[in-house]
Every structure is written in structure tokens, then in C-alpha cells.
């Protein structure tokens, strides 16, 4: 395989937006390494789908909220790059893995807050740090935020605060990695019909209808609205885009 074959590493790639992003990246000719937390069977299905499309795929277990695992994970990535691709670097990092833990400011627990912090902020920061030596110069980093960092919806103060922090962190990534020609951007999806948060948006007809009513495009988002857009950020046509927050919400609360 020549050095020109691009490789993406996507966290949380076995389901939801991560899965959609992995498949969309493969459709653009990118080989994919992706992580999953516990559901190996689902992860292997995604890997099989990517391989069936003619691209290489590798699924690796990782709890992105446990920083103690990151050094060994980076070693695993380095070995996989060497053994599977004959390379020392990959090109694109998409920090997608996440979870939801709704709770009002009055009732949210420290345990839930710390869990959100570990996965959505600390985990993203230190996994990125550990992987930076393995990202090729001229590569891309895409972090995931949320529309909730711009507009406020009750019960998401903790989650949205982590995402707000990631938006700031992404600007700093873009600034500090500019000399390496690595672009860093943040994508902020609106409400999407997935199993995220127990499928709350997808399975609650009242909430679904409400979201559609406050969205310019008049409907709730679906994974296909997001994954291909994230994958497009990895393409050469977006090489001059860095340090930006891109909301992909169909125009929620405009």
C-alpha cells in the first residue's frame, strides 16, 4: 500500500453517528480504524460492512473515559499501522465517542458530571495528546460538540458545558498544530434520531415533533445528515478550514 492511502481513526464507531461517519469515510476511499466500548458484535458488523466496500477496517475496544488505557492504545495503533498498512502514521482523528446523562442543575449527581467530564472533555484532550505523534503532518482532527453548546435545553447543563469546553479546545488545537498543517474543527450536530440517550429524540413522538417545529428544515436529523458531512471535512476540498465550529442541525433555534 502506498503512502497515499488515507487512514482515519474514529472513536465510538460501532453505532450512531460514529458508525455513520466510519461508513461515509470508507465510501470516500478512506481506510478506517474505529473504537467501541463494549459491543464487539456490533463493531464487527461495521468492520465487515466497510471491508465489503473494498476498504480496510479495524475495530478496537477502548473506554475513552479511562485515560490510563491511552498509552497502550497508542502502542496498539502504532503496531496496527505497521502491520496492516506499512505506515507509521494515520491521517485523520475523529473524536466522536460519547454518552448522555441528563439531569437538571438542581438534581445532577457528581458521579454523572464526572462521567461526562471523563468522556467528553478529559478523554478527548488526553487521547488526542497521546495520538498526536501518530497523526501525519497535513492531517485532520474533528471533534464533536452539540447544538446544546449554543442553545440551552433544560437538563443538559453538564453535557453542554463539556461540549462548550471542547469547542474552545478545538480552536487551540488548530492554533498549536497549524505549523504541522493539521486542521482541527468541531462539528456540532443538532437533535438526531439515533439510540443516543436511550433513543430519546428518536422514540419520543412529542419531543420529535417539538424538535421538528423549532428546526428550519422542519424535521429531526438522521445519521445520514451528519456522517457524510464529517467525512467531507477530511477531504482536500476542506484543507483551508480550521479552528471552526460547524453546526449541522438543519437550523435549530435560528
Overview of the molecule:
The protein is an alpha/beta fold and 254 residues long. It has a single domain (7-248), classed as Rossmann fold (3-Layer(aba) Sandwich). It is built from eight helices and seven strands; from the N terminus they run βαβαβαβαβαβαααβ. The chain has helices spanning 16-27, 40-52, 70-85, 110-131, 157-177, 200-203, 205-213, 227-233, and strands spanning 7-10, 31-36, 57-61, 90-95, 135-144, 183-189, 245-248. α2 (40-52) links the parallel β2 and β3 (57-61). α1 crosses α8 (227-233) and α4 (110-131) runs parallel beside α5. The longest helix has 22 residues, at 110-131. The termini are far apart.
In brief, what are we looking at here?
The chain has 254 residues and is of the alpha/beta class. It is built from eight helices and seven strands, in the order E-H-E-H-E-H-E-H-E-H-E-H-H-H-E. The protein has a single domain, classed as NAD(P)-binding Rossmann-like Domain (Rossmann fold), CATH 3.40.50.
Give the topology, please.
Layout lengths: L6 E4 L5 H12 L3 E6 L3 H13 L4 E5 L8 H16 L4 E6 L14 H22 L3 E10 L12 H21 L5 E7 L10 H4 L1 H9 L13 H7 L11 E4 L6
Parallel strand pairs: 1-2, 1-4, 2-3, 4-5, 5-6, 6-7
Helix pairs in contact: 1-8, 4-5
Amino acid at each position: 500500500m502506498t503512502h497515499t492511502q488515507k487512514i482515519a481513526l474514529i472513536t465510538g464507531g460501532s453505532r450512531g453517528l460514529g458508525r455513520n461517519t466510519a461508513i461515509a469515510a470508507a465510501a470516500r476511499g478512506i481506510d478506517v480504524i474505529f473504537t467501541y466500548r463494549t459491543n464487539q458484535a456490533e463493531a464487527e458488523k461495521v468492520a465487515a460492512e466497510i471491508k465489503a466496500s473494498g476498504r480496510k477496517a479495524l475495530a478496537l475496544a477502548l473506554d475513552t473515559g479511562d485515560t490510563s488505557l491511552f498509552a497502550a492504545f497508542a502502542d496498539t495503533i502504532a503496531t496496527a499501522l505497521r502491520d496492516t498498512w506499512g505506515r507509521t502514521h494515520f491521517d485523520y482523528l475523529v473524536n466522536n465517542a460519547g454518552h448522555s446523562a441528563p439531569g437538571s442543575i438542581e438534581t445532577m449527581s457528581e458521579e454523572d458530571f464526572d462521567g461526562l467530564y471523563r468522556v467528553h472533555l478529559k478523554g478527548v484532550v488526553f487521547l488526542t495528546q497521546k495520538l498526536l505523534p501518530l497523526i501525519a503532518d497535513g492531517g485532520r482532527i474533528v471533534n464533536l460538540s452539540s447544538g446544546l453548546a449554543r442553545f440551552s435545553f433544560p437538563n443538559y447543563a453538564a453535557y453542554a458545558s463539556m461540549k462548550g469546553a471542547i469547542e474552545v479546545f478545538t480552536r487551540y488545537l488548530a492554533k498549536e498544530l497549524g505549523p504541522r498543517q493539521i486542521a482541527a474543527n468541531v462539528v456540532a450536530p443538532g437533535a438526531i434520531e439515533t439510540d443516543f440517550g436511550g433513543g430519546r429524540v428518536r422514540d419520543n413522538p412529542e419531543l420529535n415533533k417539538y424538535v421538528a417545529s423549532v428546526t428550519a428544515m422542519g424535521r429531526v436529523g438522521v445519521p445520514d445528515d451528519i456522517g457524510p458531512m464529517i467525512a467531507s471535512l477530511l477531504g482536500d476540498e476542506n484543507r483551508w478550514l480550521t479552528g471552526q465550529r460547524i453546526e449541522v442541525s438543519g437550523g435549530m433555534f435560528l
